[in-house]
Amino acid sequence: MGSLRPARTSAGGLALLTALTALTAVTAQPASAHGLHRHSLASHCTGTAPIVCHFDVPPGTYDVSALLGGDTAGSTSISAEQRRAVLGETATTAGDRAYRSFTVDVRAVEGEPTGEIGSPGLDLRFEGSAPLLAGLDVTPATHARQILLAGDSTVCDQPLEPYTGWGQELPQLLRRGISVANHADSGESTVSFLANPLLFDQLETEIRAGDLVLIQLAHNDKTTTADDYRANLTAMAERVRAQGGQPVFVTPIVRRRFNSDGTLNSVALHVMAADLPNEMRSLAKELDVPLVDLTQMSRDLVEGLGVEASKDLYLTDVNGDNTHTSVSGATTFAGLVLGDLADQGLVPARQVR
């Protein structure tokens, strides 16, 4: 793989150029036969377990190509920025290579929009039971499509383990050519997400024609009236469309709160000052906005698993938390969301990993 070096574009802006190796040939032969520029990795990466790599790039969208494997058997996963899963654990046998690529969103604030500014540039972590990295390329993704997320703590890039939002696990389910820009933030309602300029206002500026904007807000709208809830969602949908994007309503994941008969109670189903999932469902039909009914899907899953088995989806056994999800739960719910998006033709099947 070529090393990363800055160059000036004809317009005077900063661009990134790389010397690409023919990766399809490399995967079938030992790394030593192709000279995978180990000095390049050494200049950007440190450590062995995990391997941590940093690229000094400005905010934007980037394609990353990684060549995994080595002389011994390996098993490697990749995360980016603030605990954002971009590749699930991938096994390689001794002497083999696996080429994997993905597209990543780089922002100054790496995680929740109201959080602190992170380290400049792109940070990647290669982890797993036996991480092995043979080559790496980072290039600007000038034509990538985005999935932007507006949500709360059940969606956001959580900074600390074991908390994990489903938006944090979504990128690993996608192939190169589509990025996830997670603007979800803990504690937000439809009211506060519109009121804080760091949230919807900022998200709005990043929408490009054809982008999807998934909106899952309800957990913190406990006192929001049905009329206000609908008005807030309508405002978001109209503003997304005005920028050329496609709004998608996502009803909230259920809380893990059971009735004595094994069904979920009204708090779990977000029926408080208003029946928020039903308001979102009916508004989606009224506005002709695509709907991912994550409330119904997560209800079916949690009730089907029952009181004990459903604990693994949440942080019940760790923090006694029946609202926020574990890595396993967040990954499961991300899969439900993406599966429905693909079924509706909103995400092409070729871009689903």
Describe the structure.
Helix content is 27%, strand content 28%. It has helices at 23-26, 38-44, 166-169, 190-195, 197-205, 226-242, 276-287, 294-309, 316-319, 327-343, and strands spanning 5-8, 14-17, 45-46, 51-55, 60-69, 74-80, 84-92, 97-106, 122-130, 133-140, 145-151, 178-182, 212-216, 246-250, 291-292, 314-315, 321-325. It contains 10 helices and 17 strands. 44% of the residues are buried. The two termini are 23 Å apart. By secondary structure, it is α/β, with parallel strands linked by helices. Helix 6 packs across helix 7 (276-287).
How many β-strand runs?
17
Global morphology: globular
Strand content: 25-35%
Largest sheet: 5 strands, antiparallel
Q: Assign the structural class, choosing from mainly alpha, mainly beta, alpha/beta, alpha+beta, or little secondary structure.
A: alpha/beta
Rounded mean pLDDT is 89
Please, how many helices?
10
Q: Report, as a whole number of angstroms, the end-to-end distance.
A: 23 Å
Instruction: List low-pLDDT spans.
Output: 1-39
Blueprint (SSEs and pairs):
Blueprint: E1 5-8, E2 14-17, H1 23-26, H2 38-44, E3 45-46, E4 51-55, E5 60-69, E6 74-80, E7 84-92, E8 97-106, E9 122-130, E10 133-140, E11 145-151, H3 166-169, E12 178-182, H4 190-195, H5 197-205, E13 212-216, H6 226-242, E14 246-250, H7 276-287, E15 291-292, H8 294-309, E16 314-315, H9 316-319, E17 321-325, H10 327-343
Parallel strand pairs: 11-12, 11-13, 13-14, 14-15
Antiparallel strand pairs: 1-2, 3-4, 4-9, 5-8, 5-10, 6-7, 6-9, 16-17
